[in-house]
Amino acid sequence: MVRGMRSDDAGVIVVGGGHAGAEAALAAARMGVETLLVTGNPETICTMPCNPSIGGPAKGQLVRELDALGGEMARAIDDTYLHIRFLNESRGPAVRALRAQADKQAYARRVSAAVHAQPHLTVLQGMVVDLVDAAGAVRGVVTEDGRRFHAPSVVIASGTFLGGKIFRGDHVEAAGRYGESPAIGLSAALARLGFTMGRLKTGTPPRVEIASVDFSRAKRQEPSAVPLAFSYRSTPAFPGPQLACWIVNTSERTHALVRENLHRSPLYGLDLIKGIGPRYCPSIEDKVIKFAHNPSHQIFLEPEGWESNSLYIGGFSTSLPADVQLAMLHTLPGLEDCEMLRP
Q: Which residue, among 189, 171, 151, 160, has the nearest Cα to 40 in the 3D structure?
């Protein structure tokens, strides 16, 4: 439920309803502070637009730290995972990491329910376009329809929405993420206040129709035989049926298609993408060019939900045109006749 609120009675305003924004809003509200969470669409709080996983090396450590501080992410994934296992079990304990695949829709519903049920937390639909500043400090926000909300503390968790763009070959569109509008105006407000602005990039792979894949050509990756949990407050239990994931490898045919179409890449030939990646998550183009000595790369086939027909092609993120993406998919074992649901 989206509730109304006076414009002068928030102790904390959080801008953005993704993973960071939801955790920030819940943390403030659980401390008894009246909190206002402003998000472009309250129905998409904590959606998982890209990878359907939680945890893994480094990120798994952060999930447990959030849990130790009373956060929601660990408990949410414990309630919604469809595949969980420890990575690097054959190696020493220092590099082992728990990783879970979420039912993406169930995970978003789980976090959204926690947000909407939290006392002292109000959810407001709106796109923040400006900041209210006074005496050298930020004291509130302004939404695109002119509403002003004041608070002594403002947290900005805008994710990919600040002047966001999507690139696919020479096709460029303004978007915060697939199918959603970007935040226009907030970047200028931050720059006006003296913040240095830059541009980061990230990528996502195509999605494939599960029924169109021949899994007999792929290596099966089983989930844990026993229930595991991220949260120390959870009682380990499988939240639903546990599904397998699968591994295939690229080939010289895949790599040749990448090299032959670099002139159509917004990252290379077209030189449209100017940002840098915020973390180590190379595109298939980067893998082929920067690691040319490798004859193949592992690709992970991961289901996105118990009732979803969509398969996430992990390790295959790309900004090449849709026709090239489909041709590359058809070079992967078991995906020769696959149907691409979306690039």
A: 160
Burial of 310-341, coded b for 16+ CB within 10 Å and e otherwise, reads bbbbbbbbbbbbeebbbbbbebbbbbeebebb
The pLDDT profile of the chain, 343 residues, written as one tens digit per residue, is 334 444 556 999 999 999 999 999 999 999 999 999 999 999 999 999 888 899 998 889 999 999 999 999 999 999 999 999 999 988 988 889 999 999 999 999 999 999 999 999 999 999 999 999 988 899 999 999 999 999 999 999 998 888 888 999 999 998 888 888 888 899 999 999 999 988 888 889 999 999 999 999 999 999 999 999 999 999 999 999 999 999 999 999 999 999 999 999 998 988 888 777 766 678 999 999 999 999 999 999 999 999 999 999 999 999 999 999 999 999 999 999 999 999 9
Q: What is the DSSP letter of 296?
A: -
Q: CA 47, CA 43: separation in Å to the nearest integer?
A: 9
The C-alpha atoms of residue 235 and residue 204 are separated, in whole angstroms, by: 33
CB 246, CB 219: distance < 8 Å: yes
Distance CA 203, CA 207 (A): 13
Domains delineated in the chain: 12-52+103-192 (3.50.50.60), 207-342 (2.40.30.260)
* Cα separation, 48 vs 108, whole angstroms: 7
Q: Contact 45/121 with Cβ under 8 angstroms?
A: no
CA contacts within 13 A on the Cβ side of 91: 8
State how far the Cα of 8 lies from the Cα of 132, in Å rounded to an integer. Answer: 12
